[in-house]
Structure prediction request, 342 residues.
Amino acid sequence: MIVVPTTDKPLRKLGFLTIGLFDEADPAAGHESTLQIIELGERLGFDSAWLRHRHFQFGISSPVAVMAAASQRTSRIEMGTAVTPLGWENPVRLAEDWATVDVLSGGRLNPGISVGPPMRWDTVKDALYPDTAETEDLSYGRVERLLAAVRGDELTDGTSIEGFEAYSNRVQPHSPGLASRLWYGGAGLKSATWAGEHRMNFLTSSVVRAEESEDFAEIQLSHVRAFRAAHPDGDAARVSQGLVVIPTDSATPEQVATYRAFAEKRLPRTAQPLGPQRMLFAPDIVGTSEEIAERLYAQAAFREIDEVAFALPFTFAHDDYVQILTDMATRLGPALGWKPAR
Prediction:
């Protein structure tokens, strides 16, 4: 019997995040697996499914296409990106794609973004921007262009009729509710504050920048509070936390061994900040739902949020994800005070 920890803020929204791993020799199978996992998430009552971007790798490179497909195989579950690195995108074209999928899905899109130079910038910039790499704006200004496009601001000189063609002065289609469902994925105080000032929602994950401390939970709590202090909605501003948690309630002994070996292999990176940006990782949490709930409630940042998008490990098999999601929805979620969506 799982005992729900005492809390004034039960979990309101339960989501999961996947990379959509596939085999280069058979990419269709991996993409189909991801679609089936999203369908399973809806049946289990999850509120949301989130996709990562992976460029020049063997994970989903076009979440917008996968979400479009998933929107036609589901009816309720929300879908998001965590996150879309905006340095890879043209903000106006991306706004068109997102609005189109939002319309097709009935208003279920939750796009998350980040800015800055893409990963491995020196390797990819010539392929991505052969003529403009040195002049591309990879700052928050790129986000502001996206926000204007999604919100329906006028971007051209005006509407017009030219022959049989009608032209709008804003991105079409326009999906009025989409702007309120934009998320910023931030790992530092500056990003958290900026997201709040610009009325976005805030995604905080299992990696933060060790700026004012080397205690992960303490750093993440400071980001949540800085975001809400800057946001007009204050404590009601939406924050979603994305840690890696792996419940083992119904797992086989072989699965448990695989999960614990995965977490153990990744544990050394949590010992201290890494790299010039001092990135600090949270340990993966493996155990029964009761054990995971206790560890989550021990974290100050978790106690201040009521939405999560738990990250699925990247290298597991389809059956592993089925077991993990089923335990999340039937055991861990209820242990955190969550109720399945209907």
Remarks:
- The domain at 13-335 is CATH 3.20.20.30 (TIM Barrel).
- The longest strand covers residues 13-18.
